[in-house]
Structure formats: C-alpha cells, structure tokens
C-alpha cells in the first residue's frame, strides 16, 4: 500500500512537470501532442478545469461514451449501484458532457467519489478492471477517433476558442445525443435550472451624479414670406387651398392637433413662378389673420379681393428644409453661398471649440460636459476631469467615456457626415434634435435615415414629388423622395439596374416608405398611355395589406411576407411594366400564432363587411364561438366599422385591378372554408377526424368537394407521408419508425389551412401581376425590397420566446444588413486594394455579423454526408432538417448540437459568441445586429417545420379538382404556368425580357449545387429564398434606407411611457436613446460614415470621366480631339484634373479609375451643369440666328411670289371679257368629265381587290402571330424546364462523382486494411507456430528431465 501511495505522489509530480511543459509549448505543438494522444486511443481530459472546480470536468469535445445506463458499457453504468457509480466517477472525478453540468448530480455519488482517498480509488479501479476487462477491450475497439485535428467547439468550461482538440467519433454521435436526451429527461424533474442568463449591455457605465440628456431645443419658427399675386384671365390667382390636421406643440410642452390651411401652387408650370412652395401654411390674407378661420371664410376673402391679393405664408417645420432649399434653387444661389456663416456664428463656434465641450457616455444615454484643465500628473494616465453642464458636478472619468461635442450650429445638420466630430453621441444628439423639430429624414452619407413619426406627416403629396423631379441629391433636402430620385437619375445616366433596400425593426415604417417610393417613381417617370397610375398602385397595396398584414405586438399593421416591387423602364425613362415577387409568407399564422396577435386582416374584413347574400353563401350568418385556429370577429364596434370600410375599399381595389366578380367570389369561398375548418376542429385522441362534422360539411361545400374527400385528403394521407428530406449520415439515420411516423389530427388540419391560404395568396399575387404586366420593351429596372423588420417580443414587453417565423424574418434582415456591410466595407476596401490605394481607417470594424452562421452555415461538403463529415459545424436550419428526420430527434438534441458548434456555456458570454443558452432547456438567445439585439427563441415544435405534411401538399390538388368552376378555373390556369418556384417564391409572371431574366436568376439559385438536392426541404427553402433575393439585389446598384424605431412603446399599442432620460412633458416627438443607440450600432452607420469621410466614395473609369468632364477644359478637348479612345487615358485625366485646379488631397488616381473624396464629384457635376447651360445658351443663340436668316429668305421668296401673282391677275383681268376665252373655259371641263368617271370606276374596282387581299393577308398574319406567340411561350417553358433539368443533372452528376470517389476511397482503405489483416494473420500464425514449437521443446525438455529423474530413481 505504501508503494501505491509513493507511486501516486510520483504521478502527481510528473503531472506538474507535464503541465509546465505544456504551458511552454506553442499552439501547434499542443495540437500535434493532442493528435498523437488521440491516435493512441487516450481521452484528452481537462485536468486544469478539474482542479478549479470539483463539479466540472470537461472533455475537449463530447466524447462518444454513454453516460446513461446501458448494457454495453458497465464501466459507466450509473444506475447499477452506488459503489459502481463512485468507481466510474473516480476515473475523472465527474464526467460531464457540454450539454449539461448538472445531469450527473442526481445520484449523489460525485462528492463522495471526489473526496475518496488514493487507496480507495486504486482499490475500486482494480476491482472494476477485473470485472470489466473483456467489455473494456470491446469498448476500445468500437471507438474510432478522427485523424484530423478539429477546432474545439465552444462549450461551458471549455478551452479558449483558439485552442484545438480532437473531434468526437462520428460513428456514435447520434447514439450520444439520444443517450443525452433520455438521461436529461430522467434527471430534469429532480434538478431545476434557475441560473439567470447574462445579456451584455451596450453601455453599462454609471457615474455618481444625476445625469440628464441634453434638452431637445424647440426649433425656431420658419421665416414668413409676403407675396402679392395678380388675378388671371381665368379669374383665379394660380394657387389652391388644402386643409389638413397636424400635431403641434404648445408652449408648456404638450401636444395637440390643430387645423391648418395650405396655400400651394397649382399643377401648371406658370404656377411655380408665384413664389409659393408646397407646405406653405396660410397665415394672413390682405393683412388679416386667417389661422382660426374656416375654409369657406378664407375662400370668400379671396373671392372679394380685387385684381391683387396679398398673402403671408409660413412653411411648416416638416417641410422647412425642403422649402428653403427649393427657394434657393429658384434664386440660383450656388451651393457654397448657401452655407456661408455669419460673424456671430463664427465667433460662437470659436468660443465653443475653446471651451472643449464633450459628451459623457453613460448607461442612460449621454450628457454634455466641459473638460477642465488640470496640472500635469494630478490625475492618473488616461483620466480626465469634467464638469457637467446641467448641474456643475465635477467628475473624474476615463478618456474612453467622453466624446467630442459639435457646436450648436450642427444640432440639426441635414447630413450626419457633415458633423465636425463624428461619433455616436453626436449622431444621436443630431437625430434627437431633428426629430424634436418634426424633421424625420436625415442623410447619412450616401444612405438615408428615416425615423418613423407617430402621426401622419404632411410631407407626402404629389406637389412635393414635383419639387424633387430632375434634381441632384446635393440640391435637395433629406426626404425619402430624394432616394427615389437619386436611383431614377442613376438609372437614366448609367442605364444600370438600381435597387432600394429598406432596413429596420418591425414598426419602423418600411412598408409605408416603400409605398412612397413606388408612388414617386410612377408619378415622376410616367408610363406610356398612363397605364400605371397612382390609383392602381394604391389598389395594389390595399390588397397586399389585406392578405399579407396582421396585428402583432410590435406593429398594428405588420407585414408577414417579404416582397420585391420591380419597375421596368423603357428607353425614354418611362415605366414599361411592373411585377411583384413575394416570399417567406407566414402562412402558419392562419392556424397558429403567438398570443395577443391576430390572423391576416382579410378574415376580419370578410366576416364584418360581407353583405347578406355573400354572408349566406359563405355560411357566416352564425359564427362559432370556439375555433381551433382562433379566428373570431371583432368585439368592439369601432373595429367592426373599420373592418367594413376596409372590405369595401378592398373590393374597389380589386375592381381597379380588373379582378372579376367570379374571381373575387372564389377567393371569398376559400377564406370561408378556412374559417369553417377552424370551427370544425380535430379530435385530440382516438380516430383522426373532425371534431364537429357540421362545420366541416360547410367547409367541404365551399371548397367544392364532399366531406369524405376532404377528410381523406386531410387525415388519411398521413400514413404514407413524410418521406425523409435528408439522405446519408449514420447507418441508422434512415431506419427506424420515422418513415411511418404520423402527425396528429390537429397538425394535419393546420397544415391544410396553411396550404389553402398559401395557394390563395399566390393566386392573388398572380392576379396583381396580370394587371401590371405589359408587352412593351424594357431596358433596365428599379427594385424596391421590403421585408418584415426585426422581431423581438421582449421589446414589446411580451414574456414569450420568439417563433420560428420570427427567426426567418430576423434572418432575412440580417442578410440584408450583411449586404449593406458588403457594399459599404468589403467592396470598398477590395476596390482600394485592387487600385493600389493605401488608406488608413480609424476605428472601423470590418467584420460581418456572426449570428448568420449560426442559422444557415452549411457543411463544406453538403452534397455528400459521410461518417467522417458528421461532426462538421452546421447552422440551425441544417440541424432542424437533420433532426426532423432522424429517429429520436428532438429540439433539445438540436440545441445541444447547435451549442456545441457556436456557443459558450450556460449564461456565459464568451467573447465573439452570439449564441447563449436560455433559462430553460428549450430557450436560447441569439445576438442579432452584431450583438446589439438579443432575441430569445422558444424551439418547442420547431422540428414540425422540417417535416413535410401531405395535407399541405394536397391543398393545391383540392382546389384544382374542385367542383366549383370559379375555383377550379382560377387554380387550373395557374397550375400550368411557372408562377411559383419550389412552392416558396410567388409572382414570377411576366413576358418581358427583364422579368424572364429575374425568374431565371431565381431558378438558378434553386437548381444549382446543394439547392438542387435540398430545394424540397422546408427549412433549407428559407435560406434558398433569401439567397435568391440577395442574388437578385446584388446585381444592381443598391441604395439603402435605414428606418429607425423612435421608441418601443409607440408601436405595440401600449401606454406611452417616459424613455430613458426624457422628461414627462417633452411631448410625443422624443426618442428612446437606448433603443436608438442599439439600432445605430446594429446598422454600423457610424463605421459607414467614417469610411465615407476618410475614403474615396466616388469613383469613375478614366475614359468615362474624361468624356463626361472634358467640357470643363475646352483646350484639352481641342488637343485630344473628339476621339472616344485616347492612347493614355490616365495621362489625359491627370491633365484634366490639373486644369480644374482641384486639391490633390481631394482625388487619387488608381490603376484604372479616378477616386474622389465625398462632395468633390458633385462639385464637378455642378460646374459641368453651369458650363453646359452656358454652352446650350450659345447654341440656342446660334440656332435662333440661323432661323432668323432662314425666315428672312422665306420672306424674300414670298415677296417675289406675290409680285408674280399680281402680274397674272392683271393679265387675267385683260382677257376675261374675250368670247373665245369664255368658250374655252366652258367646253374644257365637259371634255374631261367622261374620262374622269371611267378613271374613278377603275380605281374603285382596284380598291376593292386590294381590300380583299389586305383582309386575307391580315387574317394570315394574325394566325401566324398567334402561332408564333404560342410557340415562343412553349419554347420559353421548355427552355426553362431544360435549364432546370440540366442544373439538376449537373448536381446529380456532382453527387454521383463525389459518392463514387468516396466509395473508391473506402474500397482502397478496405483493401489496405485487408492486406494488414492478412499480414497480421500470417504473423499470428507464425507466432502460434513458434509458441507451439516452444511448447513442444519445453515439453520435450520436461520429458527429458522426467526421464532423467526416472533413470536416477532406477539407479
């Protein structure tokens, strides 16, 4: 025993030496050492973690060993008895897999085993070794370790992320997770996990002082203008009156509504010279105040005015910047002259800079302070002394806690990039001040920032649209119309496709701004024959809001689908055709949705607004109080009245778009059937059938089928259902009872309702596109992308986890944010690198969001899933698809696998990790927007999305086979086309070249690579749809609009509460600073503005720049001539820039492009416009001179002709009395009469023959045209199908080649192993022979000795 204790001490000494040696090793040496240990079959245990915590011992990666009770491994049999439990734990004190730290505490043997002495452990191990020697040998044979060193997935108590360790064996991975699931279910009721999750805050600094936000200063009232207008010949003065109500602030800070009358110019061009601007509020008429007068009184005062009327107007705050900018443009002021500062402003700014004002950043926001000068050495390094402005408190803070403040003249800067000190606090201060002054739009470099107002502003009208027509961005004030005008101007000048992407949270106003963008483009660009009117687009959005919007906790009218509006323009810049593509419809909301949220609006419209005849036809006279889908009519009277009005508006919109009464009736029938299916319900146990057959009979009647057929399609097909969407993996992944697994009756009913509504929504999109399509030729297009915003139930004070649909919408927004990051950072830096431009950027983070990988990251070899690749990291969508078809798969196992790839331990925020465990086993937190928006998700029931329910697939067949002609005709016509892509993307109609190109691009996304195999998977479809959207947008020039949410309480319908640091009497136009900071950091706007200011955002190719701006240097134009190509373009551009006398720091010549600082290119454009106007004036003068000379020549010829006519008249007067002349004039017409009649008769016959010939040719031409159109459409369909089949064949060939190579490799390995086995067998046989020979020799020797003994005894 003493020898054992001595050996134990020697082992501890050797462990210390090994530990010191390991600490001196490099990372590569540690990896090689671990790899060698794994090859030898040793477990790599975390000894350091075991010494730090008695309750934690980690294995580098989850070791493929069964911790739960099993008959295979008696070494770790926990439930056998307490003695064996202690003995098994004595191997490593307490083995814990990363999925749980408390699973092994239930038996109570961990502490005793840990406190046991060395002698007890040795005795226990010796007894177990004797009992399990045979099982241990078999166990070691079953374990196979990877030959490659994998990066260790972060888990609780694991090593740092930079350290690598061996990966688990792929052969037993599924068994390990099944074991964990069973064991966690057994131990979970005994141990409750109450550990709180720590979510990192953006700013957690607090200071021992009462901190306040800077006061939102009320903006000064805009200047009034006095105008004198003359009465016209038509009797009016050329302006119109418009009455509206708007919010206004009282002197005490309160908010109230008041009636305002606007005096705005008319629609004619002459009306612009009046001096009136849209948004001018009428104050006085002929010196009398009219602010409190009615419209009739104002009209009577204007009518009683004489030939002139004197008006006094004042712009409203919302349009004050636009009005000021418009008037300066009319006056022709240069941009430099607009921003000239007065001496008082310059003096105030110098005093401000001298006082060194700063922002103190703290948890509640930021506060204004002054840096105090201190003696050198009085404060530690990195500390400063400041004095707060609001109360004079003096604080010692870190230098990192303060940011420089801008002078008050920059408080309402139109462009955030123009701030002298560009930092987060200055941006928030500027946005707060602007929002307090009803200025909701702000430029952020090339991007636009829009803060959603809480009231309907008066800044959107057709007259305001015309103020932006033809303007450059530098000549306009911040407005969403400026983004549309910039995109339209770029489309005309570059003939390149443009895209406008709206980003932001739910309720931030993205859909509303999308409507404004579409209305502006349609109104300003116009269309041939005015086929695209504002009324038609208003009807489109009325239908989309009815069928695709609902009420949520974040937004009272939230969009539950993503859509892209495609406007195609012709050569003249007019709208030639349009279409809408939709994706990611939240169709399960029909049957299942979060608490306190509604279903789609159209159900409430139909139940409240249907007339008596329609209500009788839909069997809605008596509504069921209980519904499995939770669809109930409104209980409040005002809500019912609003629903009735909306239904009338919806019917009128359908009429505008040409949707017939029968088509509308078919839609109402299906919606009524969905309602009756919810009222019918389904049984919870026993036979799968409807719970209330009388309601199911009504649904069957409305759908045009029998009750038996409906019941069979919903409940009976499930036994054949659910074919696995995933092939490959472990051997037991394709076996088991999963193929024949059945859905519950309620799940089948919900799937049928969701499938029916999906078909209805798709056909509605088809009907809309039918009204928008056109056969005109189009050149390029503008895409407007609108998706549901970020969803976070905690933001709306909802104590629930987010759903899978909300995850999909958040994932879409993340991908669009990544596109913004790619266009703003990645492409710019790559462009600088390609052009050999060295640029040093300060404090710019160039890493994209890491949360996307946790959702959609696919394994490197997604087509071939072999055993050796099962341990590769994959995202949540792929894990859902695998666990949904794996026997025994569950959400808990899915989460464990996800955490093993991407997360740190429970509640721990490992640096760089954006995935945290929740307080319960089915909850997890994901840090969206670069970790600024942590959303808690509830994964219960998520695997149902990965399973293909045949009831949903039967919905299309049910509608196409309906006995009602209006339903079957509507859906049979769509079934023959290609309007839906893989059941996900709708609205791919269109015969124009651009529409076909968009459809082909989306189909390519679904038919190449892994998509060809996984496109039927419901989970992978989410990624493929977003991929198709991003790929379509990436091909164009993208303009981003960042929509910000002012405060969370304003959108959910709850009571308004005071945000951080705001006073209670500050009115409605205030911002939640914490929410604003999170949105700004998540969007990376500050970094985008820094790279915009420090870099060269504008660039042009040498040849294009020379051709465009050579008008500014006429002498160089004469030198190079009018040639399009110059031998040395770079030299020509350098000479042109030198002649323009630009600062050398404002531009940089690359290898093929010239780069400009922000604002330089716009200045050159303005100079070019001035020079072009001067040249055009000279050209007009030359043209007018030429026309005047031509007119003079014409007058001379006319004078000569008049003289000739006068001469002939004089001669005629001399002979008109001559008798022979009279006889000649009388007989001459009689001679020609007969000849004329014969000629007319011949011509008539010839005309008849030509008419018959023309009719015949016209008929033949129409037939040929019809045949040609039919053949072209057929050829298009065949080419599309051929492309799909070709892509599928290529993917299948790739899969076959990969599988073939894998099979050959495995065969080669098997041959090598067989060879080794044969060698080992031969060696074994030879050794056996040697052993036998040795035994024989030994036996012979023993026999000889025995003979000798016998001989000796005999002697």
From TrEMBL:
For this UniProt record, give its keywords in alphabetical order, as a comma-separated list: Actin-binding, ATP-binding, Coiled coil, Cytoplasm, Motor protein, Myosin, Nucleotide-binding, Phosphoprotein
Q: What is its main location?
A: cytoplasm
Q: Where in the cell is it found?
A: Cytoplasm
Q: Write the protein's name.
A: Myosin XVIIIA
Domain PDZ residues, every copy: 226-317
Q: Where is the Myosin motor domain?
A: 411-1169
- Tell me the domain of life: Eukaryota
Give the residue ranges for region: Disordered. Answer: 1-31, 98-117, 144-171, 1280-1300
GO MF annotation list: actin filament binding; ATP binding; cytoskeletal motor activity
Instruction: List where Basic and acidic residues composition bias occurs.
Output: 102-117
Keyword Phosphoprotein found: yes
Xref: PROSITE patterns: IQ, MYOSIN_MOTOR, PDZ
GO terms for biological process, alphabetical: actomyosin structure organization
Q: Which organism is it from?
A: Poecilia formosa
**Keyword match Zinc:** no
GO CC annotation, single? myosin filament
